[in-house]
């Protein structure tokens, strides 16, 4: 069963990638990618602060919360420099990614190959 899903997954990924590549220019796709990655990075930095507050951080760095706070401020400054169209496109890309992630979670874990199970 899993062996039959691999070509389907490759074909789906190729079709989505081709559709995205044909829908815009390289520079607009790069900007959308950068904006969506910055938003995710801000969330990661905020989670570092939350984990430190609850005492669940497996390790700590020097200067404590200053590093993630500076990273959040710098990321927000970069996002402020993006055009409104780039911000909207980045938000749409993040939304589509969240939908795909949720669909994958609802589908459950993929089956293990027979030689592992």
Describe the overall structure.
The mean pLDDT is 81. The chain has helices spanning 2-23, 26-53, 66-80, 84-107. Helix 2 (26-53) packs antiparallel against helix 3 (66-80) and helix 2 (26-53) crosses helix 4 (84-107). It contains 4 helices and no strands. The chain has a domain at 27-107. The chain has 117 residues and is mainly α.
Category from helices, strands and their pairing = mainly alpha
Please report the number of helical segments.
4
Task: List the uncertain runs.
Answer: none
Give the strand content: under 5%
- Ends: how far apart? 13 Å
Helix content: over 70%
Biggest pleated sheet:
none
Principal-axes shape call: flat
Number of strands: 0
Q: Please trace the helix and strand order, writing H or E for each element.
A: HHHH
Subunit arrangement of the protein: single chain
| Mean of all residue-level pLDDT scores | 81
Radius of gyration: 19 Å
Topology:
Elements: H1 2-23, H2 26-53, H3 66-80, H4 84-107
List keywords for this structure.
single chain; 117 residues; mainly alpha; 76% helix; 0% strand; flat
Summarize the structure.
The protein has 4 helices and no strands.
